[in-house]
Amino acid sequence: MKSLDVRGMACPLPVVSVKRALESAEGELRVLLDDGAPRENVKRFVQGRGYQVQEEQIEGGFAFTITGAGSGSARREATPTERSGATVMLIGSDRLGDGAEELGRLLMKNFIITLLDMSELPDRIFFVNSGVLLAAQGSEVIEALEELGNRGVEVLSCGICLDFYKKKELLAAGGVTNMFTIAESMLQARSVVRL
């Protein structure tokens, strides 16, 4: 069984390292990783590709034993003609546009609330940098983001960004993701809307 130690690595290196190891691994792969975002991100990544994960708590973190053939998507990236047709929205700030901060925050709030009245919604909304503040407690758009989630929009915030702003424990809408998933989703999307 091949082993991989990704403890102490910053996002997205644990996911990237596991992806590379799976591409060359034959049989089982044992991964040693830190608790928190690395554990969540790697687990979501491998399960999303059809692998099975056995999880064990060890001193200093966790060990995953990854088995199965997977769906193959970990081995080959989609070509432009194979892309899923998803629409991805990347929100990189808690404000919309340049200029007065107060106006920018009002415009972003109005934009997100207005999405609820659109006939076509994005498949995923990624929040990065100060955009993660929109999905944290105290944001005026939590209810709108929850409703978007109820309508099938995946609402995801960058884990490193949440840590930077000390908002990880205050995330109130959607889930946590990593830069690998963001980059992969953007590259495989039919269209990307960046705000």
How many β-strand stretches? 9
From the spread of the alpha carbons, the general shape counts as elongated
Low-confidence stretches: 73-83
Name the strands of the widest sheet in spatial order.
8-7-6-5-9
- Cα radius of gyration in angstroms: 18 Å
| Helix-residue proportion | 25-40%
Q: Which H/E pattern describes the elements? A: EHEHEEEHEHEHEHE
| Main sheet properties | 5 strands, parallel
Name the beta content range: 15-25%
User: In whole angstroms, how far apart are the ends?
Assistant: 44 Å
Number of helices: 6
Mean pLDDT: 89
Structural class comes to: alpha/beta
Report on this model:
The chain is an alpha/beta fold and 195 residues long. It is 33% helix and 23% strand. It is built from 6 helices and 9 strands; from the N terminus they run E-H-E-H-E-E-E-H-E-H-E-H-E-H-E. It has helices at residues 13-24, 37-48, 101-115, 142-150, 159-164, 179-188, and strands spanning 2-5, 29-33, 52-58, 61-67, 87-91, 124-127, 154-158, 175-177, 191-194. The strands form 2 sheets. It has a 5-stranded parallel sheet. A 4-stranded mixed sheet has the order 1-2-4-3, covered by helices on one side.
